[in-house]
């Protein structure tokens, strides 16, 4: 019989509508699967985890992270999006070696596990060579996390790859042969621990024939597309959805990242085509992409995932994203109400709730990542991807509303135990992985990359030889 683990007496926030929130229940895991969720399970011979009073949630899903940037964490705290393009993408990315990508992906994935993120969409636009692709995938695999490897394009020059040498759209194409090879030889299992997507640039950034090539490549490979749209006020990211519609390339299950400045008809295109959005609220507000339009997407029934985007500029856990979207979307709604009701007599209607936010960080994020059929909720039959949150901690206790405890009080320090695919990758606050060698590698990568950057930014520590 497969290994059996019984989590006893937890507050279970299942994110499965048929199961709901259970104030005192058990979860039985067999092998890689959840097999039962209810009060009073007995399972002879199972290893018992006493979770009395603790909260169990499905693992968080980070729906878009450029994990390769983990080695240059917080190098750009004050950057706007424009500054980011010219420094991170044009000065750091071309210097990345395969070992830098490996170190960053492994360290970034371990960071996720530590923070209770059990599924990571790795938006990997650092495919400078085939060896870079191998390094990215093996970094993810070694961590044990569930991930979607979103195969992207090389980042050897922003002008060539993002805008085109004449600034009228790139003529460069994703390496289709390499994508086909990875799909057939490494990532052919659509329910494996690492699955595949295509990370594309899209309309305005590329000539229409390049867009068509990349979208049709995704269709040929049978993988979802993930693409940045409507960010900042760049002319480039305006009306990208209209452009895709004109090309007849509005595919279902496409993830539209940021979406801050979509027009009304473009929102309708996302909804009608079965698309979804990935919002990175902390980054969007900090770097100037725009607001995270969660309330709009929610009203239209469009699945919302939260994402951390870049470790260069903000912290990469889902608690940060939940706080940012909860505060910003409510702040916007309050402001509208105040502006319309200057006498202050009307309370703000139609506010997003803490339960909306937790759903976006978990099951809806799983829908965006394309893994919801087998992960994202605490449901018998699904893979055991779940997190135990410590409620004894000084910042969490006492608990009254457990969703409030997770969304408004808890942080990474309260992530006690993390299961991915039935394996405890963190147990009683301690990661199963040995951190020594991966930390050394990512620090060495940082030293190399900082050394190749050119003139250091103000505030950086001196480069090590
Ligand atoms: Zn991004």
Overview of this structure, please?
By secondary structure, this protein is an alpha/beta fold. It has a domain at 62-340: TIM Barrel (Alpha-Beta Barrel). Helices cover 36% and strands 20% of the residues. Strands 1, 2, 3, 4, 5, 14, 15, 16 and 17 form a 9-stranded mixed β-sheet that branches. Strands 6-7-8-9-10-11-12-13 form an 8-stranded parallel β-sheet. α11 packs antiparallel against α12 (354-361), α12 packs parallel to α13 (363-369) and α12 crosses α14 (402-409). The mean pLDDT is 96. Zinc ion is lined by residues 64, 66, 123, 228, 257, 309.
Structural class of the secondary structure composition?
A: alpha/beta
**What is the CATH superfamily label of one domain?**
Metal-dependent hydrolases
CATH architecture of one domain: Alpha-Beta Barrel
**Sheet with the most strands, sense and barrel status:** 9 strands, mixed
Number of helical segments with 4 or more residues? 15
Radius of gyration: 22 Å
CATH topology (fold) name of one domain: TIM Barrel
Bound molecules: zinc ion
End-to-end separation: 54 Å
DSSP helix fraction:
25-40%
Q: How large a portion of the residues is in β-strands, by DSSP E?
A: 15-25%
Oligomer: single chain
**DSSP summary, beta strand count:** 17
> Any idea of the CATH class of one domain?
Alpha Beta
Shape: globular
Mean pLDDT: 96
Low confidence ranges: none
């Amino acid at each position: 019989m497969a290994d059996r683990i019984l989590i006893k007496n937890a507050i279970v926030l299942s994110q499965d509508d048929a199961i709901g929130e259970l104030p005192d229940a058990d979860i039985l895991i067999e092998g890689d699967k959840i097999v039962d969720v209810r009060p009073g399970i007995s399972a002879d011979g199972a290893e018992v985890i006493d979770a009395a009073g603790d909260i169990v949630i499905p693992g968080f899903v980070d729906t878009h992270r450029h994990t390769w940037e983990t080695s240059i964490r917080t190098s750009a705290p004050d950057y706007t999006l424009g500054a980011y393009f010219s420094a991170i993408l044009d000065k750091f990315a071309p210097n990345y070696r395969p070992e830098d990508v490996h170190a960053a992906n492994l360290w970034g994935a371990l960071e996720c596990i530590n923070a209770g993120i059990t599924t990571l969409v790795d938006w990997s636009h650092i495919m400078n060579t085939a060896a870079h692709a191998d390094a990215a995938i093996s970094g993810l695999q070694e961590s044990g996390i569930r991930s979607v490897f979103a195969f992207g394009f090389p980042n050897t020059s922003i002008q060539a790859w993002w805008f085109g040498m004449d600034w009228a759209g790139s003529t460069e194409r994703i390496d289709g042969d390499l994508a086909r090879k990875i799909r057939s030889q490494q990532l052919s299992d659509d329910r494996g621990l690492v699955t595949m997507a295509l990370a594309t640039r899209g309309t305005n950034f590329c000539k229409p024939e390049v867009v068509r090539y990349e979208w049709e490549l995704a269709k040929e490979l049978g993988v979802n597309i993930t693409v940045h749209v409507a960010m900042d006020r760049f002319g480039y990211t305006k009306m990208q959805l209209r452009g895709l519609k004109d090309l007849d390339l509005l595919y279902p299950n496409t993830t539209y990242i940021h979406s801050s400045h979509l027009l009304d008809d473009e929102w309708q295109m996302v909804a009608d085509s079965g698309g979804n959005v990935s919002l990175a609220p902390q980054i969007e507000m900090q770097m100037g992409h725009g607001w995270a339009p969660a309330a709009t997407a929610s009203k239209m029934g469009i699945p919302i995932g939260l994402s951390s985007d870049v470790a260069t500029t903000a912290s990469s856990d889902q608690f940060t994203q939940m706080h940012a979207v909860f505060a910003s979307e409510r702040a916007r709604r309050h402001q509208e109400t105040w502006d319309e009701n200057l006498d202050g007599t009307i309370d703000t209607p139609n506010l997003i709730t803490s339960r909306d936010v937790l759903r976006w960080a978990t099951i809806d994020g799983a829908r965006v990542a394309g893994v919801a059929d087998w992960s994202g909720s605490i449901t018998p039959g699904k893979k055991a991807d779940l997190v135990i949150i410590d409620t004894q901690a000084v910042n969490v206790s006492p608990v009254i509303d457990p969703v409030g405890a997770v969304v408004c009080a808890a942080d990474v320090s309260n992530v006690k135990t993390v299961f991915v695919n039935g394996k405890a990758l963190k147990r009683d606050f301690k990661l199963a992985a040995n951190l020594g060698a991966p930390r050394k590698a990512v620090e060495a990568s940082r030293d190399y990359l900082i050394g190749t950057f050119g003139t250091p930014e103000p505030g950086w520590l001196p480069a090590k030889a």
